[in-house]
């Protein structure tokens, strides 16, 4: 299992993404809505590693980056199956938050290179493990949804996939 540091979204943006999850679910397609755990919520992953435990005290000192965020067009990540997501449109605030987290957790065991600065694609996942046919149906279904979703970040959280627990980290530091 893995551990991560993630940005959460404000209530309105969270609701907008959940509506897209529900559209997929209602159409019988793979969707993040299928995961009913309390910790399953729309988020932007900033860093992933095998273990952040030794860094939790330092992670807890991070300021919570509160800033406007825009979710843009659909993006597909290919592997054995496809993952469908909304691309997060990069902003200076988003890149600064990512750089701060990446530099802090860079020494963690098993840091994933795809979350390193210069290799990271910020996104919010809509569905995982999609076949090509499901992917085509999902894109067609979501085609009529708004092209850009606008909101703000609301919190920074730590997710421990081994323990299946989450907690908020850092302290509020709203940008002027």
TrEMBL record:
Cross-referenced Pfam families, in alphabetical order? 2_5_RNA_ligase2 (PF13563)
Q: Which Gene3D superfamilies match?
A: Cyclic phosphodiesterase
User: Which InterPro entries would you find in this protein's record?
Assistant: Cyclic_Pdiesterase
Name of this protein: 2'-5' RNA ligase superfamily protein
- Species whose genome carries this gene: Rhodococcoides kyotonense
């Amino acid at each position: 299992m893995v551990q991560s540091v993630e940005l959460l979204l404000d209530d309105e943006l969270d609701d907008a993404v959940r509506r897209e999850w529900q559209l997929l679910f209602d159409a019988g397609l793979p969707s993040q809505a299928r995961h009913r755990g309390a910790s399953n919520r729309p988020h932007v992953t900033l860093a992933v590693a095998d273990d952040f435990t030794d860094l939790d005290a330092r992670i807890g000192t991070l300021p919570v980056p509160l800033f406007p965020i825009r979710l843009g067009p659909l993006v597909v990540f290919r592997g054995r199956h496809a993952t469908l997501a909304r691309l997060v449109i990069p902003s200076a605030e988003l890149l600064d938050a990512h750089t701060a987290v990446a530099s802090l957790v860079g020494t963690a065991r098993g840091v994933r290179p795809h979350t390193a600065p210069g290799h990271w694609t910020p996104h919010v996942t809509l569905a995982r493990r999609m076949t090509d046919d499901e992917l085509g149906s999902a894109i067609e279904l979501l085609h009529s949804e708004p092209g850009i979703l606008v909101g703000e970040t609301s919190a920074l959280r730590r997710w421990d996939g081994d323990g299946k627990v989450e907690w908020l980290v850092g302290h509020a530091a709203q940008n002027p």
